[in-house]
Write a structure and sequence with these properties.
Elements (H helix, E strand, L loop, with lengths): L2 H12 L5 H8 L3 H13 L19 E9 L4 H12 L4 E6 L6 E7 L2 H10 L7 E8 L10
Antiparallel strand pairs: 1-3, 1-4, 2-3
Helix pairs in contact: 1-2, 2-3
Length: 147
């Protein structure tokens, strides 16, 4: 990765639908050189894919919460069982194994508070590995650069 690759990645992160000609102009390359660099970044898995930024409220999933989850058992088997269970929950868009006083941080999206309560009670609340659940409801996102 050099400075030009960094610029390409930054521009594509902002707008994955930018034309190659516009991208080349923004990073100071010829279109053919830019296309070769993008192809190399994709081949090397620096760029793993392209995504649409979706307005969740318009899809009926406008309620967003981050959830800290502590496990009762810190074994590998317990973590794997939790991860298997959580991977089947469509409400969970992100699951991060983290350091600190808890083991996992989840990003959950659902229709509303009532739907979140169902997820909290009927999904998280039924997992034997879960010892603690702390919810942080998103009230607004003044900066969100996730693709």
């Amino acid at each position: 990765m050099d400075q030009i690759d960094d610029m390409i990645v930054r521009e594509l992160s902002r707008d994955g639908r930018i034309t190659n000609i516009e991208l080349a102009d923004r990073v100071g390359l010829s279109p053919s050189a830019c296309l070769r660099r993008v192809a190399a970044l994709e081949r090397d898995a620096v760029i793993e894919g392209y995504r649409a930024v979706v307005n969740r409220a318009k899809t009926g999933r406008g309620f967003v919460a981050y959830i800290g989850v502590g496990l009762s058992d810190h074994s590998k088997a317990s973590q794997e069982a939790f991860e298997r269970s959580i991977s089947r929950a469509p409400e969970v868009l992100e699951c991060h194994n983290i350091t600190g006083s808890i083991e996992y941080l989840l990003r959950v999206e659902c229709a509303d508070l009532a739907a979140y309560k169902v997820f909290h009670t009927d999904v998280l609340g039924t997992l034997a590995q879960v010892n603690s659940i702390t919810s942080y409801v998103v009230m607004g996102s003044p900066k969100d650069e996730r693709a």
